[in-house]
Amino acid sequence: MARFLVRRLIGAIAVLFAISVLVFLIFNVVPATNPAQRIAGKNATPQLIKNVEEEWGFNKSLPAQYWTQMKLIFTGKVVSYNSHINIDKRILEGIPATASLCIGAAIIWLSFGILFGYLSAIRAGGLTDRVLTVVALIGISMPVFWLASILLYYFTYKIELFPPSGYKPLSEPREWFSHLILPWITLAVLFVGFYSRVLRSSMLDVMNEDYVRTARAKGLSSRRVMTRHVLRNSLIPIVTLFGLDFGAVIGGGAIVTEYMFNIEGVGLFTAEALKQQDFPSIMAVAIFGAFFIVLFNTLVDVAYAYLDPRIRLGTAAA
C-alpha cells in the first residue's frame, strides 16, 4: 500500500507540473500580444508595463519566466493590477464560502442521487421508475442561472422564506444555513438527476451477475441482496463520479451559482476576474482549480486501492 501511495503522489505532482506548464504557455506564449501589457491592463502606462516585465520575468528565457511566475503564485506575491489586491489572499478568503457551498450541495446530490437511483432500479419499468426518470431529466436540463432566478424570485422576494443573497460565516450557524439552502439546491439539482441515472444503470447490470443469483439461491432476503450485494457493488462508478465532480466544483465549477447568489467565494472571484480580463487572477484560479481536481482524483484512486487490493497489487506488478 505504501508503494502504491508513493506512486500516486508522484503521479499527482507530475500532473500538476504539466498543468502549470500548460497554463503558463496558454497565458504567456500562445497569444500574439505582449503578455506584460495584457497583465498590466488596458489603460497601463509604459512604466507599469516595464515594471510588469521585470516582476514577471518577461525579459528572461522561457524557463526563467516559468520559474518566476510560479514562484510569484505559490509564495502569495501575485497582485492584481486592476483591483490592487493580493490574489492568493483573496482566494484563501473565498475558500470557506466555496467549501460551504460545495460540501452542502454534495451531501444533497449524493444522498438524493443514490436514493432515486436505488428506487428506480428496484422498480425498473414501473411507475416509480418512470416518474423519477422524468424528474431526473428535468433536473439535468435546467440551466443553473434559470433555476437560481426562479428560486430567488419565489422563496426570497415573493414569500420571503429565505434571506437575500450573500454569505454568512459558520460562526453564525442559523444565518449560514438559511443563506446557503437555495444555493445548495441550485447546485445539487443537476447532479441528482445524473447520479440517479448512472446508479440505476449500474444496479441493473449488477443484478444479472452470477454472485447475485447465488445470493438469492441461498435464501437471502430481497432487501439484503439489493443493499449488501447489488447497491454496494454498484457504487463504484458513483465514487469515481463524485471524486471528479466534487474536485471540479470546488475548483471553480460553482462559478454561476456563486455569481447568482452573490456568494463571495472563489467562483465569484473567478467571474469578476473573467469580466475584468484580470489575467494574473485567472492564471492563479486555474492552477487552484487544477490542484483540487488532481487532489480528489488521487483520493479516489487511494479509496479504490483500499477497497480492492487487486488494484494496488496490479500497479505494483506493473
CATH 2nd-level architecture of the largest domain: Orthogonal Bundle
The biggest sheet amounts to:
none
Average pLDDT level: 83
| Secondary-structure element pattern, one letter each | HHHHHHHHHHHHHHH
Unreliable runs, pLDDT <50, ≥5 residues? none
Number of strands: 0
Q: Do you know the CATH topology of the largest domain?
A: MetI-like fold
Per CATH, the class of the largest domain reads Mainly Alpha
Q: So what's the overall shape?
A: globular
Please report the distance between the alpha carbons of the first and last residues: 14 Å
> What is the H level of CATH, i.e. the homologous superfamily of the largest domain?
MetI-like
* Beta-strand percentage range: under 5%
Please state the structural category. mainly alpha
Radius of gyration, in angstroms, nearest whole number: 24 Å
The total count of helices amounts to: 15
Helix content: over 70%
- Write down the domain tally: 2
